Amino acid sequence: MRWLFNLSFRHKIPLWTSFLIGFSILVVGAALMTRAYEDMKNAVVISADNLAHTLANTVAPTLLHDDVWRTFEIVRSPIRGESAKTPVQVDAVVVLTREHKVFVSSDPETLPMLSEAATLGPDWERLTENLRTPAGIKWPLVLEPAGSSYLYVALPITDKDAQLGHLVLRYAKSVFHPWFIDTLWQAFGIGLLVLAVLIPINWYWGGRMAKPLVDLAQRMGMMLEKVPEPLPPDVYPYHDELGQLFQAYDRMILALRDKAALENEMVKSERLAAIGQLTAGIAHEINNPLAGLITVVDTLKLRRDLDPRVLRGLELIDRGLTQIRDTVAALLVQTRVQARPLNQHDLEDIHTLIQPQVGARRIRLDWSAAMPAELPAPAGLVRQILINLLLNAVQAAAEGGHVSLWLGRKDDAESCLTMIVRNDGALLGDEQLAHPFEPFASTRAGGHGLGLWVTYQIVTQLEGRIAARNIDGEVEFVVNLPLGETPCSTALP
Amino acid sequence: MTQKTFDPLPNRNRRRWLIDSGCLAAAALIGLTRKSQAASGKIRVGMTPAFLHDQHILLDEWRDYMAASLQRPVEFVQRDSYRETMDLLRLEKLEFAWICDYPFLHLKQEVRLLAVPLYKGRPYYSSYLIVRKDNTQVRSIADLAGSVFAYADPYSNTGYLSPRYQIRQTGRGPATFFRKTFFTWSHRKVVEAVASGLAHGGAVDSYIWDTLAHVEPALAARTRVVLRSADYGFPPFVSHHSVAADQFQLMQRHLLDMSRNAAGRRLLEHMYLDGFIVGSPSLYDGVAHMMRAFGET
């Protein structure tokens, strides 16, 4: 039995309500049918009473004159053929003499005249017993002997004050049983019809109520593994306790998501910061001996007596060292320089500077920069950020592809400068989306992967935010830089 | 039994009319006893009762035919039993009547024999002793001693006098022979009483039962003829003595001529009769003999 209570609400609610509907219909139906049966019996008795009075009055004179045939014709008149079987159809009419013998009956074959009524069977025995003790009898006498398939209604036949005998009407219950069964079937049909209408409604309603609960339970079950999805917004648009529960759940999920996003960002930032410290440390340690090495090589190269093979070796060493210096220099981002504010010329310069690359790759460039004459942002660093992002975009975009820049203050936020760069190149993979700014992560041949790392370093040191994502089939980088003391919100909307 | 064309009446009802009124059929009384009646010229003919409404239509046909033939208005008077028709004759409220042979003898001081119908070509019929079809034990009336018996009418020969005479022949008294007897006031109802099991046996007019076997075989088939009595003179048409001789002859001529014209033949056909003959009172000597046996004159 316990499994029944362990069933999902999805089944339990419709099952229980269906059961209750069926049970109610059954109980109401049974009550009505019991009533119908009683009513039918009463109708039979009332009809029998009327018939018995009429017949008793009509039969009295013929009984007085001992006119068997006339009496027979009278008692036979209410008997109909098989076709007229209704519950109030009398089955047999019997006229009993004062001595309780059959004077005449409508069915002489089974109830022959002159026979003692008491010998006609147990029913008649009981009936004559009742008729013999008439004291206290309320006429008509209605007798329904136990175990009998007949109902009897008896009335005395009187002429003035003299009692001539009794008139007995017999009704076959076997006739009104089928009639009752008919009614029962009819009621059953109506019940089925009601069920046919109610059950689907009930299953729909139950399912509709249970579905969000089931979804909720599933999502709550997954909560330890990850932040579950919120419920679909139209799943239960009402404000009862269930609706409130779902709303509370949705609020909780949103809060959990924000928290998770924040944690994620923090982890990323800390990781990048750690990498930054490590690289800065390494760069410093490399820079000191490197400066010496480069000086020595430069000095050596100035000597004229060098063997050409040695000179070639020196130049090789020189190029290598220079490459090391450039790389290390890129790792060491210096932002603490006094800088002039950003102006429109800077943007024009940037546009001009990237033109050769744009032209070489036949890139279509959308340029949308809402720029006042001057902004309180360090011009050099912003230039570097923009050039890095744009060149990265141009390289990433397909040959003949599309790159766009949007620069301005988003949502009229006075205190933040927003830069958005998009390209239509290959979308970022999951790994890249997870760590877009880590150094040496480039997938592009020929790139050392430091461009975005440097950009990240600059943005972070300016206390701005940078984010990357795939949107509308393009790759988008968004940078928010604070123009004053107020920090900017997260780069992504 | 050719029943091809006869006006609007369905065969069955036409036949029933015949059966109901048939043998018991009333005595016709000739005799315009009242001057007023003679003056009005209306002829009153007594018929035995049968109250199916369609019977009236058939009687109407016959009445119209008779009126046209006699060139006088005709009234058919129906009553519920022989006794009543006999009383009407005695009271001279009928000129003619079609009555049973037994009443004819009762009334022989007041009426004259007018004509006798021919049934199967003869002016005779008999009494049938019938029981239910499933009762195969009964071979004679003696086997019905102590049972319930249905008579047709106390003034019926075949339905009362004849069976009682047969009982008397066995040496028993008809009054105590049966446990219970009753009258149904019609031969057809004797058949019904026996068929339904109300009575164990009954006595019925052979003319009625034979006809019933044709027109209502389901009912007749529920009974079995145990015994056929001797032949008796067929129920006659009679006239009251007061009827003038010319009127008597006119009516007699009319009846005798019925089989000679198409309309008359058609009516006769529907009554399962072949015609009328003048007949002789000696036809009824057998009935008179039985009556004497019971002390009746």
CATH C-level category of the largest domain in chain B = Alpha Beta
Figure out the total of helices of chain B: 13
Q: Residue ranges of chain A: pLDDT <50 for 5 or more in a row?
A: none
Global mean pLDDT of chain B: 82
SS strand fraction of chain B? 15-25%
Structure description:
The complex is a heterodimer of chains A (493) and B (297). By secondary structure, chain A is of the alpha+beta class. Chain A has eleven helices and twelve strands. In chain A, 54% of the residues lie in helices and 16% in strands. In chain A, the strands form three sheets. In chain A, strands 2-1-5-4-3 form a five-stranded antiparallel sheet, with helices on both faces. In chain A, strands 7-9-10-12-11 form a five-stranded mixed sheet, covered by helices on one side. Chain B is an alpha/beta fold. Chain B is built from 13 helices and 13 strands. Chain B has helices spanning 11-21, 35-40, 53-70, 82-90, 101-106, 157-169, 174-177, 187-196, 206-215, 217-220, 245-257, 262-270, 285-293, and strands spanning 43-47, 74-78, 96-98, 111-118, 124-125, 127-132, 148-151, 180-183, 201-205, 223-228, 232-233, 237-240, 275-277. In chain B, strands 2-1-3-12-4-13 form a six-stranded mixed sheet, sandwiched between helices. Chain B has a five-stranded mixed sheet with strand order 8-7-9-6-10. In chain B, helix 1 (11-21) packs antiparallel against helix 9 (206-215) and helix 6 crosses helix 13 (285-293). The longest helix of chain B is centred in the N-terminal third of the chain and has 18 residues, at 53-70. Mean pLDDT of chain B is 82; it is low at 1-12, 14-39 and 49-54. Chains A and B meet through helix 3 of A and strand 8 and helix 8 of B.
